[in-house]
Amino acid sequence: MKKSGPLSRALISLLLLGAGACAKKEQIVIFATGRSQGRLWAEEAPGASERAGGLAVFKSLYDQEKLPKLAVDTGNWFSATPEGWLTRGRSTLACFNAVPYTAAAPGLEDLALTPQELQKLAESSAMPLLASNLYLKTNKKPPFLFSSRIVEAGGRKVGIFSLLINSPSTPNKPKYLPNYKLEKETYEAQRAIKALRDEGAQLIVMLLGVNPREKASQDFFRDLLSKLPRIDLVITDEPSVKKPFRVNRAWVAGAGLEMASAARLGLRLDRAGKMTGLSWKKIPLSAAKYGEDPGMLKVIGGFRKSAAAHFSRRVGFLSAALPLSDGGVSPAADFAADCMRRWAKTNAAIIGLKEPAAGFSSGTVTVGDLYASFPLDSSVVFVKIRGDDLERALSGLQPGEISVSGLRLFLRSGALERTETDSGPLVPGHIYRLAVPDSLASGRENPLLSSAMEFANSRRYLREVMGWCFSRQKSFSRPAGGRIVQAGDK
Question: To pair with 319 at 20 to 30 A between CA atoms, which of 43, 235, 267, 341?
Answer without folding.
Answer: 341
